[in-house]
Design a protein that fits this description.
- About 70% of the residues lie in helices and about 0% in strands.
- The protein has a domain of about 45 residues.
- The protein has 41 helices and no strands.
- About 35% of the residues are buried.
Amino acid sequence: MDADALDQSSNFADGKESDQTALFRILMNHEAAEDSFAVVRKLTDQALLARIAVEASNFNLREAAISNLTDQALLGKLALEDRDWPSFADQVVLLRAITDQSFLAKIAMECRNKFVRSLATSRLTDQVLLAKIALADEDRNVRETAVLSLADQSLFAKLVFENNDLDVQLSRWDIFERLTDQAVLARIAVEARNQFDRCFAIRKLEDQALLAKIAVEDEAYSVREIAVEVLTDQALLTKIAAQDNDSRVRKAAVLKLLDQSVLIPIALEYRNASVRRAAASRLPHYVLPSFVATLSDQDLLTTIAVEDEDYEVRQAAISKLAVSSLALRIALNDPNWHIRKNLVDRLTDPELLAKLATEDKDDEVREAAVRKITYKSLLAKIALEDRGHLVRLVAVERLMDQALLRKVAMESDDSRVRQEAIQRIRDEGLLEEIATNLGEKDAEVRMAAVKKIRDQSLLAKISTEENSYFTSGVRLAAIKQLKDHTLRSKIALEDKDPLIREAARLGLPTEVLRSAVARLTDEALLRTIAMEPKSSLRGVARERLAALRAGKPLR
């Protein structure tokens, strides 16, 4: 603002000039100037301040004008006018300037702008008016503001009884959060038509006698349920747990019980599953299985074995059932494999054992059942077909039939199973058949079969056989058990495989080998022996070659 304009506006502000219109024009032309704010702050003319508050484009200038307004009626008029203020901050400043409760009440009740109504409501102190706004205003936020400004407990009750708008849950929540008067809460808990209001009040109610009456008599299960949750009378809770016609209320009562002697029968015998679960959850985990182990009533044990959700409790019941019990058969389908496995120990029925051994989904259960099976054909089938490696091994361990063991050894796809089958075969003819007919399927299995053969003729046959299915390892296994020195000497000198020859020589006395070389007539073989490095037989071979060439007879 230039110096002339500043002097002129200062004169107007000081009252030295009366032309307010001119002053307004000067201020509007220099809104952003710092001096303009100083001039406005010195103004006292309420009409001019109101005009600046409404028409100035600069917020700080508008704020300065509103801050200097003291005419409550004029402020109220501005607040009630249906105008578009440049910003919400203008309305905040305006409402803060109004202190007259009657004007605030008029604004809160009549202003069309819901944000202005909410601001005015937040500054009201008239409790009756606040209650009226909380009940009647069309805007939820305004109603909530009124509730938050209330302090009169009796008026809270009025709100509850007269406002049935269930859509305004947040307002109702605010009401009950601020409500502490026990007499008012008691009245709401008993008389309110809305069951949700009764529930809100009951949660804060301290009168145990009244809570007991509500828990037993209220027609709404949700109200009785909330009352039960606040009750402490164990005798009444026990009665409600047994007699209330709604399982949700009974469950709530059970969850408040402390006496184990009351909880145990409920956990085991109660007709409703959710109530049984609630009772069980109130007990240490070891209590129910221990108690069940003392029962003898077969009907009750059957119910527990079939229906209880705790596998340890079912296990305890099953352990007390008669072996012939239908429940025991039902338990074969128990979802817990521990129970099914333990059940196997009590079974003697071959058909049931066979069913478990072949159909149960868990390896542990099938293995336990296999250990009790005596049907040899079934054991062989399991050894060949079961999907569990350990189950197949156990089946083989139980198998004694030599022909079936041969079948397993020849046909199984599991090397360990084939080897276990061979270890149980005593018939050397079968072992020789396995060693010669298994082909290239498993050299280790064939060697295992050979190692069990003691018949020297069979060992001799295997040792000298050169079919493709006899690997050097199989022949080596046979040679190591061959006791015929003459045959071993022949193999040691004549076999085409150097490894076989070397294995055959091991353990043979040197004199036996030298004697065998001295009887050879095959000059090519003798030349080969004569050229072997570091061989004790070289000299004998050379002598024999020389003798053959000279036509000398064998010594």
